[in-house]
Amino acid sequence: MILKIPQNSNFKLEIAKELLLLIEEAHKEFDRSQSDLDWKWETDRSPIDVGGKTYEIKLRFGFAEYFFTLGEILNTDINGLGDIGRKRVPFGFIAYDKDSNSVYVVFRGTMTPAEWITNAQFKPGCEPFLRENDLGKVHRGFHKIYTRKDIGPNLFKKKDDKPSIRECIENAIKGCPKHTIGLWPTEAIEKCPTEATVYTTGHSLGGALATLATLHIKEKINPFKPILYAFANPRAGGVDFSKRFEGLECFRIANSEDIVPTLPLASIDLASGSNDTTSKSLEKTNLPKLFSPKLFSSLLPELDYHHIGEPIYFTHHKGAIADNHIIPAYKEALGII
């Protein structure tokens, strides 16, 4: 398999390798949280060793695990879900490498190869990014994961509240004194150097969240202009949202045989201003008759979704839908042994 890197691209293979290994580390931290129930990951700031480098951990962030299924996230309003089976788990971290003066905002994705395909209905709602209309609209499920406080298992005990991922990222990059990360104790966090390079990255669902984090940092955490490397990510927002990324370096790495980057559907509006024979024949196609009413209605997005960033494609058919999507396929494409 060969990565298709456009001529004159600023895409850096070694950076992509480094970031994918950090994403894999975020997955390992999830595994540890499941096997080591005594691990206090929310307050653990121990450094990590990945790919021969040591990274300082500025902060780990998390969310409630009832959102593991990407299909459910794509199709569900988070406010409508209950606390059944709720358990807070790590979703990623903000790391710092002093030698390169680089900050890394890292998101893991869904944890089980088949989880994101268990629900085939992809009818996402949308809402303004960061509640600001001029930033464009984004997928409601992704947005709520990024911005909603974790209210804890008891609605009436504010001391159980945890900060949103958005707040964690702001605190980790801007810096904050002791005891101000949500409502749990922590040591003070130093502000990131203003000349630091900030990378945002994630795989699958994590790639969508990294996309949101990229614009959030650009718009709200001056003077940083983050660089996005998103792997196997679904579309996150509409055309107005995508326009706000102008001037940023953004790359989306995708397997052409992976179906997740094709979701949510960009559009199913068959009307065309073209006189092309194919487009006219498609307009006459009665799609509802080709699918069950439930399936067809489930495909209708509320937003024309757009990809973000320069496409970096490869083709690697592993023989199964899930295997075309998971991290090992992407490691092979990047030449990580």
Q: What does this 3D model show about the protein?
A:
With 337 residues, the chain is an alpha/beta fold. It has a single domain (13-265, 301-334), classed as Alpha/Beta hydrolase fold, catalytic domain (Rossmann fold, 3-Layer(aba) Sandwich). The chain contains 10 helices and 12 strands. It has helices at residues 13-35, 70-75, 140-147, 165-174, 205-220, 239-243, 277-283, 287-290, 293-298, 327-334, and strands spanning 48-50, 53-64, 88-97, 102-107, 126-128, 137-139, 197-203, 227-231, 237-238, 250-255, 305-306, 310-314. The protein has an 8-stranded mixed beta sheet with strand order 1-2-3-4-7-8-10-12, with helices on both faces. The protein has a two-stranded antiparallel ribbon with strand order 5-6. Helix 1 (13-35) runs antiparallel to helix 10. The two termini are 14 Å apart.
Secondary-structure topology with pairs:
Elements: H1 13-35, E1 48-50, E2 53-64, H2 70-75, E3 88-97, E4 102-107, E5 126-128, E6 137-139, H3 140-147, H4 165-174, E7 197-203, H5 205-220, E8 227-231, E9 237-238, H6 239-243, E10 250-255, H7 277-283, H8 287-290, H9 293-298, E11 305-306, E12 310-314, H10 327-334
Parallel strand pairs: 4-7, 7-8, 8-10, 10-12
Antiparallel strand pairs: 1-2, 2-3, 3-4, 5-6, 9-11
Helix pairs in contact: 1-10, 3-5
